Amino acid sequence: MTPFPGFRQEDFSTDVRGTHWRNRRALGGDLRLLLRRIYGRRYQTWGLPGSNAIHIARRAAYTFPPSRAQAVLLICAGPDYLRWGFSLPTTGEHWLNFRASLQHGVVMPLLLSLLYTHRLTFTDAADAVGGVLGGCWRFEQGELVWREACSLSRPAVPHDIIYRLDDLPLDSKRPLSLFVEVDSATAVSWGDKTLAHLAPLLVDLIPLYEICVGATSG
Question: What pLDDT digit, counting tens, does each position of 89-108 carry?
Fold first, then answer.
């Protein structure tokens, strides 16, 4: 299979017609091959119906087309951005697994390492403004901070994450998102090196994803 040659400007649209990057003969296929080299045939990619996005998940832990709350790795192209990372609905079995692991101290070191290493944003909406949470966590100048819309960042401690997530209503309709974002021009400029830019974060997110879906080594 020919490697994905890179994004075109027409890939950044709210209409999936005319886009070429999601299928398994393009970026979706490159991602599948990469993950299968590491994890065997357990992982697959799916173009999300009606949405300019790819879901990446364990075959045994994912329903397609999506009809239930399920954790996924995600790549999403908007009109002027490319965003990739992890999405977790705040209801269902995967959410309960995440919360239990967070309370028992399993997830927090991994979460903080991901936030710091990849300069991620952690919130409950598709952008840094946040939904019910009303803001986001990220690292700035080596320090964990909480930032609300129209306000300056302020220092945060890890337990702030637990306290705020405790206040989220069940099934708040907004998934938790752990992501990084670049503008569409930057993504287009990557050309055939696109996978090299996306893969490090997606691979590093696998342990967090597997905790949420209750995966074992099999």
Answer: 998 999 999 999 998 888 99
Domain that holds residue 198: 9-213
Quick check: helix, strand or coil at residue 188?
Answer: helix
- Dist. CA 77–CA 206, nearest whole Å: 21
Q: What is the C-alpha to C-alpha distance for residues 187 and 204, in angstroms, rounded to an integer?
A: 20
CATH number of the domain to which 123 belongs: 3.30.930
Task: Decide if 208 contacts 110 (C-beta within 8 A).
Answer: yes
Distances (CA, A) of 125 to 76, 82, 131, 188, 199: 13, 15, 5, 25, 23
* Residue recorded with tokens 């927090």: 108
Structure tokens at 9: 């400007």
**Listed range (114-118, 133-137, 140-144) with the worst mean pLDDT:** 133-137
Strands (E), the chain: 43-47, 53-58, 72-77, 81-88, 121-123, 135-140, 143-148, 154-155, 176-183
Give domain status of residue 142, yes or no.
Answer: yes
**Is 83 in a helix, a strand, or coil?**
strand
Residue 217 pLDDT greater than 50, yes or no: no
Task: Give 104: exposed, middle or buried? Use CB within 10 Å, 0-12, 13-18, 19+.
Answer: exposed
